[in-house]
Amino acid sequence: MAMLEVKNLGISFGGLRAVNGFHITIEKNQLYGLIGPNGAGKTTVFNLLTGVYKPDAGSILLDGKDITGEKDIEISKAGIARTFQNIRLFSQMSVLDNVKVGMHNHHEYSVLAGIFHTPKYKKEEALMDEKAMELLKVFDLADMAETNASNLPYGKQRRLEIARALATDPKLLLLDEPAAGMNPKETGELMDMIRFVRDHFDMTILLIEHDMKLVSGICEKLTMLNFGEVLAEGATSEVLNNPQVITAYLGE
Amino acid sequence: MSFLNYLISGISLGSVYAIIALGYTMVYGIAKMLNFAHGDVIMVGAYVVFYSTAAGMPAIPAVLLSVVICTVLGMAIEAVAYRPLRSAASPLAVLITAIGVSYLLQNLALLFWSSNTKSFTSVVKIPALKVAGLNISGETIVTIAACILIVVGLTLFINKTKPGQAMLAVSEDKGAAQLMGINVNATIALTFAIGSGLAAIAGVLLCSAYPSLTPYTGSMPGIKAFVAAVFGGIGSIPGAMIGGILLGIIEIFGKAYISSQMADAIVFAVLIVVLLVKPTGLLGKQIQEKV
Amino acid sequence: MKKMMTKKAKQNAITYGIVIIGFLAMQLLSATGHMSSSLSGLLIPFCYYVILAVSLNLVVGVLGELSLGHAGFMCVGAFSSVFFTKCMENVITNSVIRFIIALIIGAVIAAIFGVLIGIPVLRLKGDYLAIVTLAFGEIIKNLVNVLYIGRDGNGFHFSMKDSLSLGMEPDGQVIVNGPQGITGIPKDATFAIGVILVLITLFIVLRLVDSRDGRAIQSIRDNRIAAESIGINVTKYKLMAFSVSAGLAGIGGALYAHNLSTLSATPKNFGYNMSIMILVYVVLGGIGNIRGSVIAPIVLNLVLDYFLRKMQMLGNNVVLQFLSDNRMLVYAIVLIVIMLFSWSPKMIEWRERVFHKKAKEEA
């Protein structure tokens, strides 16, 4: 069974068909790329998958479970986590707390337990601290656990956002232009890291990216989106050599 | 008093709200901020007219002087207190500062003009109109006429002139407007200038109809006019007029038929109902947050 | 990890310590006969101002929304608790026990109002939320002013018109009398209880902020869209912050009311002027800085009310006279200057430049 199976997904904004008939099938542990020119509807697809927008057509199956039209909270609980094109961290919170808040739905205790520091509170907090520090070590952020997220340099902010997404213990990780604003060296490190995340966490990853070096370097399969519709899909090299794809990118 | 009399005084009060609401709605539409001090500019405008007429100045030059002073005041407030915070990290920053400016104006007025209630002499010298048993005061006629003139004038200004088009552009997208060569700072300053000039007129009309003037005179009508702007749809000029007039009618009817003590509560209840049922107001448009 | 925990705990301990030391210092002053009557009259107000500022900071600083209706919740707490006290005046004669129950009632009813008002209001944000909370605060004040409640042999009577329409037996007693409010309130509030209430408020707010729920609330403040993406229930946590804040404001109101003999709702005590004065404390102490909300009300009131008056007695200084006569003017200027100084991007840049320069010179 595929980890993500999307059929005929669509949404309109005020008469404009932003995404139409979108489909994708991602196998477990796959590294999948979503490409296309600016305005093709890639981020809209992410917003549909994560419940920010409600689709007006189609179905989304995550690991066999129908999550079509669910709210973002339910979709997060079901196991989709994401990062954002323009980084969205909790800037006034510490790096550690950014990760701990990601575990919100996995370590629960009541408000009163939190106020009176019951044994349950202590146990859950200790567990969260431990897991969060492990994650931070993986992303080389452990020594900055107490720093405010806004004080991190750009590259580390991107990494923290991925760490936070993983803290929600997802089945599918969506990365929206993870290499945006990075130099070639940083992009190289990012590629290693994405591969590492896939292997270390046994993760299924769908990413949006414009950097073709990154896409051809790590993605196993691609879907190319143009004007809200799937123009091509398949193995990475196939799609990148598809003449239609080249035309769409370079223009007529 | 009859139903029709209440209706006319409702429209009259509502026209004042509408003129104030225009200032709110333009500033909100273009600078995306709630100018809490707008109501207090009204009070300053009324005091200027009060003192200049007391010193022997005829009504029309006094009103013009008041418009000039309020325009300068509005632009000064924008430049000193709001502009530095336009790109602040927290959206609360400029709102809290605006509250501070509101208090500053009230307390400066208290300092200069004392808390004693001044009895404002109406600047309107037109006799009352008697039609079919109704008695329509000169103030009412002038207020309603001024409101209509201002709404027509502003609509023409925004749609037909270059600075007006620049305002529309800035309200749509500040960044894009800047790239198109529009001077965003100047456009926002102009918006404040117009809004504050209108506030002066509203202050004179308000105090001509309700002649007691204190440093707090502007604050409640200011808040109610914001309610009117939200009611009509923030950012919309016809919306501000419709919202203002409806709110004036609701307030006067509430006072007359329900409870005079509860009139303010009724006005605020309208705001809450509108925001819950149709948050964009009667004529407002939906803004989607970008993810 | 251990080190970090203790760091947070240490910061909180300092905050509690400030309150306790302040209390002991006041006790020392009065034991040695140095307590002036003007200062002793400020002690209980200090307590409720701190409670109100800390609780408002939970909404403004931790949740990141501006509530201008805080005085409304204070009003609910004040009236509900005093109503209870008046009804039980002859039943529960121990003033401490009676006051404790009254405080709980004030807090719970204010918190219920917080939930009821929060459900519709919290769908909004920013300017709209601010203005709607202001509206609710004014509505509460207005409603209290037309509320008449009396009691006779047949039980309670309510009216929204006047005391005559309560239709009571001749032996009946009007408890809440419209704009006249409630009279003859027993003075159950003491400074010691006030300080304990401050400590309880701090305990609740500091611990809440540092828990799973507090992190969720802060994440909404920092980035609502990201918070939703990791499965935070935004409405639930907004409502939690709002209602806890309202409940604590209710405690502040109850303390305020039991320090008076007559309680009535005026624009001065429960209007939005009061809400804004509390906001000044929060801004002065630092938005999101709980300790600042403890210190700011005390410092502002001490400076403006007490020291200025003292200094005036020594020499008739025009400037001092001016400052103490125009307290709200000073508040307004403080508010604007602090906001410009701490939030303007240019000022932040300037501060960093100066700060870095200094650091370099020292190195």
From TrEMBL, chain A:
Pfam families: ABC_tran, BCA_ABC_TP_C. CDD domains: ABC_Mj1267_LivG_branched. Residues 4-252 form the ABC transporter domain. Keywords: ATP-binding, Nucleotide-binding, Transport. GO terms for molecular function: ATP binding. PANTHER family: AMINO ACID ABC TRANSPORTER ATP-BINDING PROTEIN (PTHR45772:SF7), CONSERVED COMPONENT OF ABC TRANSPORTER FOR NATURAL AMINO ACIDS-RELATED (PTHR45772). This is ABC transporter ATP-binding protein. It comes from Jingyaoa shaoxingensis.
UniProtKB/TrEMBL annotation, chain B:
Keywords: Amino-acid transport, Cell inner membrane, Cell membrane, Membrane, Transmembrane, Transmembrane helix, Transport. The chain crosses the membrane at residues 6-27, 34-53, 59-80, 92-114, 134-158, 179-206, 226-253, 265-284. It is a multi-pass membrane protein. It is found in: Cell membrane. It comes from the Bacteria. InterPro entries: ABC_transp_permease, BCAA_transport_permease. This is Branched-chain amino acid ABC transporter permease. It comes from Jingyaoa shaoxingensis.
UniProtKB/TrEMBL annotation, chain C:
The chain crosses the membrane at residues 12-30, 42-60, 67-84, 96-121, 128-150, 189-209, 278-308, 328-345. Keywords: Cell membrane, Membrane, Transmembrane, Transmembrane helix. InterPro entries: ABC_transp_permease, LivM-like. The keyword Transmembrane helix applies. It is a multi-pass membrane protein. It is found in: Cell membrane. The keyword Flavoprotein does not apply. It comes from the Bacteria. PANTHER family: HIGH-AFFINITY BRANCHED-CHAIN AMINO ACID TRANSPORT PROTEIN BRAE, HIGH-AFFINITY BRANCHED-CHAIN AMINO ACID TRANSPORT SYSTEM PERMEASE. This is Branched-chain amino acid ABC transporter permease.
